[in-house]
């Protein structure tokens, strides 16, 4: 079928919304009508070529929600008409990592997905001239329709508006997972969150749900610090202010935090996460750094029982966590609305990437199908 999609032809050139060909779903795949999609800083890393070669040409977008249009042979967990969130790690459930309870590290996804292919190593997307397009992060949801692996479409409760559900499959599952599955934050433990964008705000929300205290939010954009407070930060630190963030955290905690989450993806803030934890504390890197970037820490400090660790996609099982997080949102325990500072149509993708490059606003949600998205101001609000 002929659809409109946001194509990255080459890094450094603007992403263009153009007509592409989408093949029907094969066995074990699902065709989804995209309704809403969130624009994440990882999309900027893709668009700017910071993840290294092998990621273009392709269709971007890895965070979103839609409605099932058609299912391929053997797909039984969803049916046409069902609302779904995208999950960009459609675990195979039979590789070594999946069997060991680490589906976020599925090796089939790692093998084909890194190339932007579906689980059988092929693409359903082409330019009209026949050039194969990659499926950005196996999802390619900056498009009117997309074909994903069955595990890439996770059923949602019908009551949750899709413009909110769009955020579940990256920012929310990644941010809350870092708190719940990696740090396993306990009530009263202290937390610092470095970077309060679309993902960092979800780390803050997760820390609040876990009962962390204090929750210290660090960002260099004042607007982010007010959003951080709205999401549950007890203290905010302006990284561009007079007091060095490390001194501010020391002043607030008198010795460093139990957990620092780096949600930016830069060597200097990874180092800052290390510097602000107490002896025995953990620095957890959520941010995606550009390919080739190295981070370093003073090695003598390993002697104080500090640890530095990574996480990918919440480090849990997104297929079970996404519906659970949707339930938390419906129960009013998790607010998915305030992180959305801009809404726009599919054509607003490049403007949304630019805002992330400039550090302006938090999430933009592209209302690909404004009628189905359920956003109250959809008809009137532009970017
Ligand atoms: N010091 C403090 N804050 C900073 C700094 C810095 N040196 N550099 C950037 N920031 C802040 C920005 O102001 C912004 O609020 O970090 C935040 C990053 O947020 P977004 O650009 O909205 O990025 P987001 O989509 O949240 O993704 C964050 O997580 O999943 C990964 O790939 C993603 O690496 C990215 C990270
Ligand atoms: Zn993302």
Would you spell out the secondary-structure blueprint of this structure?
Layout: E1 2-8, E2 16-22, E3 29-39, H1 41-47, E4 58-59, E5 63-71, E6 83-86, H2 96-99, H3 107-113, E7 125-126, E8 132-135, E9 145-149, E10 153-155, H4 162-165, H5 168-183, E11 191-194, H6 200-210, E12 215-219, H7 222-231, E13 235-238, H8 245-253, E14 257-262, H9 267-275, E15 277-285, E16 307-310, H10 318-330, E17 340-344, H11 349-358, E18 363-367, H12 370-373
Parallel strand pairs: 4-8, 11-12, 11-14, 12-13, 14-15, 15-16, 17-18
Antiparallel strand pairs: 1-2, 1-4, 2-7, 3-5, 3-9, 3-18, 5-6, 6-10, 7-8
Bound molecules: adenosine-5-diphosphoribose and zinc ion (ZN).
Adenosine-5-diphosphoribose binds next to α1 and β12.
Summarize the structure.
The chain is of the alpha/beta class. The chain has 2 domains: 2-167 and 339-380, Quinone Oxidoreductase, Chain A, domain 1, CATH 3.90.180.10; 175-312, Rossmann fold (3-Layer(aba) Sandwich), CATH 3.40.50.
Task: Describe this protein with a few key phrases.
alpha/beta, 383 residues, Quinone Oxidoreductase, Chain A, domain 1, Rossmann fold, seven-stranded mixed beta sheet, disordered C terminus, binds adenosine-5-diphosphoribose, 12 helices, binds zinc ion, 25% strand
């Amino acid at each position: 079928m002929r659809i409109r999609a946001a194509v990255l032809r080459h890094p450094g050139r603007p992403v263009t919304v153009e007509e592409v060909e989408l093949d029907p779903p094969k066995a074990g795949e699902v065709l989804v009508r995209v309704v809403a999609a969130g624009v994440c800083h990882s999309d900027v890393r893709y668009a700017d070529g910071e993840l290294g070669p092998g990621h273009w040409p392709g269709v971007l977008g890895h965070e979103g929600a839609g409605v099932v249009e058609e299912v391929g042979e053997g797909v039984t967990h969803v049916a046409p008409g069902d609302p779904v969130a995208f999950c960009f790690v459609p675990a195979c459930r039979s590789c070594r990592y999946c069997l060991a309870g680490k589906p976020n590290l599925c090796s089939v996804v790692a093998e084909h997905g890194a190339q932007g292919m579906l689980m059988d190593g092929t693409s359903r997307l082409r330019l009209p001239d026949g050039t194969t397009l990659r499926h950005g992060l196996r999802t390619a949801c900056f498009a009117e329709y997309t074909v994903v692996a069955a595990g890439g479409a996770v059923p949602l409760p019908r009551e949750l508006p899709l413009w909110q559900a769009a955020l579940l499959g990256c920012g929310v599952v990644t941010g809350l997972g870092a708190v719940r599955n990696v740090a396993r934050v306990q009530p009263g433990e202290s937390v610092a969150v470095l970077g309060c964008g679309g993902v960092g705000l979800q780390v803050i929300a997760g820390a609040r749900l876990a009962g962390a205290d204090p929750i210290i939010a660090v960002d260099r954009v004042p607007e982010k610090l007010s959003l951080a407070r709205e999401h549950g930060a007890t203290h905010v630190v302006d990284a561009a202010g007079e007091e060095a963030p490390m001194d501010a955290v020391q002043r607030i905690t008198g010795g460093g935090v139990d957990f620092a989450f780096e949600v930016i993806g830069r060597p200097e803030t990874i180092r800052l996460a290390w510097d602000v934890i107490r002896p025995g504390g953990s620095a957890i890197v959520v941010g995606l750094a550009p390919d080739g970037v190295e981070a370093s820490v003073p090695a003598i400090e390993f002697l104080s029982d500090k640890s530095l660790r990574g996480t990918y996609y919440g480090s849990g099982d997104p297929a079970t966590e996404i519906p659970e997080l949707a339930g938390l949102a419906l129960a009013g325990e998790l607010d998915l609305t305030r992180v959305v500072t801009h809404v726009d149509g599919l054509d607003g993708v490049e403007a949304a990437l630019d805002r992330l490059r400039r550090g302006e606003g938090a999430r933009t949600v592209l209302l690909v199908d404004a009628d189905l998205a359920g956003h109250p101001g959809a008809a009137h609000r532009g970017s």
